[in-house]
Amino acid sequence: MSTQPTNRFVDTEPWVDTPDVSAPERRELDAPAWLLIWRNFRRHRLALLSGIFLLCAYLILPIAGFIAPYTPNERNPDYLYAPPQSINLWHEGAFIGPFVYPITAEADLTNYRWTYTEDKTQPLRLGFFCEGQSYKLFGLIPSNTHLFCPPEGASLFLWGSDRLGRDVFSRILYGAQLSLTVGLIGISVSFALGITFGAMAGYFGGKIDWVLNRLIEILRSLPELPLWLALSAAVPSSWGPVAVFFIISIILGILDWPGLARSVRAKFLSLREEEYIKAAEMMGAKPGRVIRRHLLPNFMSHLIASATLSIPAMILGETALSYLGLGLRAPAVSWGVMLNDAQNLASIEIYWWTAIPMLPIIVVVLAFNFLGDGLRASLDPYEH
After folding, report:
1. Long-range contacts of 36-43 (CB under 8 A, 24+ apart)
2. What pLDDT, on a 0 to 100 scale, did the predictor assign at position 28?
3. Which residues contact 281 (CB under 8 A, 6 or more apart)?
4. Which residues of the chain fall short of a pLDDT of 70?
5. d(CA 76, CA 72)
6. β strands within 123-224, DSSP E
7. Angle made by CA atoms 61, 182, 34, in degrees to the nearest 5
C-alpha cells in the first residue's frame, strides 16, 4: 500500500483475478440465523422425520372426514367386532385393482364371540371419490365425498370395528382432531401464564418474585393426578362435548405453567444484568418493551423446545382423563374416549384390534419428543 498526497491509500500490487480462499468460510459466518438453524436441524435425521410426520398429521386434521371411509359414530350392526380387512390388488393371478373380500358374521355360542369368514370367490372393488355420510371440511364446509368407500353390500374396516360396529380407522382419524388439538390449546394457555408470571418474577424481583415463587411452590407440591381428577369431576355432565373439550384444555394448561415459569424466571434473573438490558433501561425503555424486545428473543429457542416437549404431556393428560371417564365423553371422539371403550381386558384378548388407538398415541408422543430433542440442539446456532 502507498500513501498519496490526498491521503488516499492505493494498492501497488497488480490485480490478480483469483478466487478468495476465505470466501466459503466467510459465507458460512455471514449466513442468517434461520439458515444456520436449518443446517443444524437437518443433521438430526430422526427429528427431521418426526417433524415431517407431525406436519402431515396436522395437515390431515381438517380433511379427516374426506380420508375416512365412515363417519365417527356411523354404526354397522351386522359387523360387531369385525376384524381388520386387507386391501388386495390381485385375485387368482389377475390384477383387479384395490378390492376386498366380503365377510360374514357368525355367532360362536360355544366361546361366546363373533367369528367372521371371508368369501374369497367374490372380490369387490373399492369406490374412490364416492358419496357417503356427510361431514364438514375444515369444520365449516359441508360435504359427503370420501376418498375411498366400501363396495356396495360389503364392509371396509382397515383396522377392524368396535363393539357397536364403528370403524376404528375412521374414529382414529376423527379422534386426532381433538387429541392433537388439545395439546396446542393447552400449551397456549400454559405458555401465556408461564411466560407472564415468570417474566414478572425474574425481571422485577422483590416482593413480586417472592409471592409468585410461593404460588409456584404450592402448585407444584399438589399431587397432579388427583388434582386433574378433582377439576375434571367439577365439570358439569350436562355440558356439550365442545365445552368440555375447551375446559379440559384450559385445565391442562393451568396445571402445566409452574415449571415453565420457574425456567423463565431463572433465565431472566441472569439476563437482566446484561449490558444491553441496562443500556435499554437507561435509554428510557419501559419494562414491557425490555421484556418483549430484548429478553424474550434471547430465550425463544428454549421456549420452542419446551413447547414441543410439553405438548405430549398435554396429549397424555387428555388421554388419561378420557380413559378414566372424567375427560371428553361420547359422542365426542378422541383417542382417550376410544381407549375408554377398550377397558375390558377379556375383550382385548379376543378382539385385539380394539387396542389399536394406543399406537397413534405412542407414535405421536415419540415424534414430539424426538422433534423437541432436535430443536433443543439446533435452535442456538452460535453455541459452538
Report:
1. 36/381, 36/382, 37/378, 37/379, 37/381, 39/381, 40/377, 40/378, 40/381, 41/374, 41/375, 41/378
2. 58
3. 290
4. 1-31, 33, 346, 380-384
5. 12
6. 124-125, 127-137, 141-149
7. 75
Amino acid 56: pLDDT: 92
What strands, in cross-sheet order, belong to the sheet with 88-91? Answer: 88-91, 94-100, 124-125
Give the pLDDT confidence score for residue 3 in this predicted structure.
Answer: 53
Contacts with 289 (C-beta within 8 Å, 6 or more apart), sequence order: 280
Residues composing the chain: 384
Give strand ranges (E) for the chain.
2-3, 9-10, 88-91, 94-100, 103-108, 113-118, 124-125, 127-137, 141-149
Amino acid identity for residue 369 in this structure: N
Cell digits of residue 123: 372380490
Global pTM reads 0.79
Q: What integer pLDDT is reported at residue 7 of this predicted model? A: 61
Cis peptide before 331 (omega within 30 of 0): yes
Name the residue with cell 430443536: 375
The DSSP result for 75-89, as a single string, is: --TT-TTPPP---EE
The pLDDT value given to residue 104? 87
Nearest to 224 by CA among 275, 179, 258: 258
